[in-house]
Amino acid sequence: MIKLYFETTEFVSPRYGNLPLTIIRLIANVRFVRRMVRCLLTDETGALGPELEILSFLAKTDQVPLILGFADLLSKFEICFDYGSGKAFARSPSET
After folding, report:
1. CA–CA gap between residue 83 and residue 39 (Å, rounded)
2. pTM of the entire structure?
3. How many CB atoms are located within 10 Å of the residue 67 CB?
4. Tens-digit pLDDT profile for the chain (96 aa)?
5. Burial of 69 (0-12, 13-18, 19+ CB in 10 A)
6. Cα–Cα distance, 5 to 11 (Å, whole number)
7. Which residues pair with 28 in a beta bridge?
């Protein structure tokens, strides 16, 4: 198995309201290829959402897990967190 490492950097930018942010970079001894992939989201009942195209990082080996980009999902869905119950979910704009 290829080990993956993460490097974190903190910064403040007026673009993000001057709030302190942490950037996390994936570091590995393997080359990744950036590709857009199509996927479907499903819920606990098996209902399928619309087809989405999201950024993914693919390695040329099966020894590295598939890494999917969440930025595309965050910009297309309302993300809801209920810290009290420990649940989180994404709601499509058509459900609001």
Report:
1. 27
2. 0.49
3. 15
4. 566 777 888 888 888 888 888 887 777 677 778 888 898 888 888 888 888 888 887 877 777 777 777 777 777 788 888 888 988 887 777 665
5. middle
6. 20
7. 4
